[in-house]
Structure formats: structure tokens, C-alpha cells
């Protein structure tokens, strides 16, 4: 498994999310400026709804920026135990421990990107190849770690 390429794919996806949120915030701010009228309460309600949307987008942008900061600290070096930056194969799936952005397909293999804060990673954190862990009354065995 080429972890450098996988990490690059994840970094690109997070960068695209950041650009998307920045564009949405800019567009929403522009539409907020376009709603000037003399309609009184309706105008204020509309502006408040747009401001709430901007705040929501800003929160999501900040989360993506945090993910980007985490990714900058991760290296593609092989791991002997489950830790941040490890690629873990269990008998139930393939997981990349970094940030949670969902499924990534690499070399026709599906893997889930998961945060170190997720219950799954907390259950397997520090474990080595061949060890078992339990999550939600299901046992999984770590088959390989890169």
C-alpha cells in the first residue's frame, strides 16, 4: 500500500472541502448584501437567516481547517501499531487513521478514513498485528498495519 498517495488523496479532498466552504461563504455574504430593501421586519429576518447560514458554513470551514492541520502532522511512514497515520486492515475492513472524511477508493480498494477520536480507533489504538479488539459487542482482528 502506498500510504503517501493515500495521504495525498485525503489532503486534496480536505483542500477541496475548504475551497468549497470559502466559496459558499463568499456567495452567501454577497447575497446578504444584495437583500437591502425597506421591508422592515422581513428584511431583518432574511438577513438573520443568511447570517445563521454564514455562521454554520464558517463552523464547517473551521472543522475542515482543523482537519488540514492534523493532516500536515501525519507522515506516510509505516506503523507497527495503530496510531495516527496508520493504515489498518482488520477482518472487517480497511481503515486509515487520520481525519474522518468518509470512504476513499485507492487501487480498487475501499477504505474508510477515520479520526483518532472515533470509537473504532479508540478501541484499536495501540494494538498490533494479530491483536483483537471489541467495538459494540463485535470482535475484530487486526490483520495488517502499514
Count all strands and give the number.
Answer: 6
Q: What does the overall shape look like?
A: elongated
User: Could you spell the SSE succession in H and E letters?
Assistant: HHEEEEHEE
Strand order in the largest sheet: 3-4-2-1-6-5
Q: SS-based structural class?
A: alpha+beta
Straight-line N-to-C gap: 8 Å
Proportion of residues in extended strands: 15-25%
Mean pLDDT level: 92
Low-confidence sequence ranges:
none
Largest sheet: 6 strands, mixed
* Helix fraction bin: 40-55%
User: What does the radius of gyration come to?
Assistant: 20 Å
Count of discrete alpha- or pi-helical segments spanning 4 or more residues: 3
Instruction: Compute the number of structural domains.
Output: 2
Organism: Chryseobacterium piperi
Keywords: Coiled coil
Protein name: Transcription elongation factor GreA/GreB C-terminal domain-containing protein
Write the layout of secondary structure elements.
Elements: H1 3-33, H2 41-73, E1 87-90, E2 93-98, E3 102-106, E4 109-115, H3 119-124, E5 132-135, E6 138-145
Helix pairs in contact: 1-2
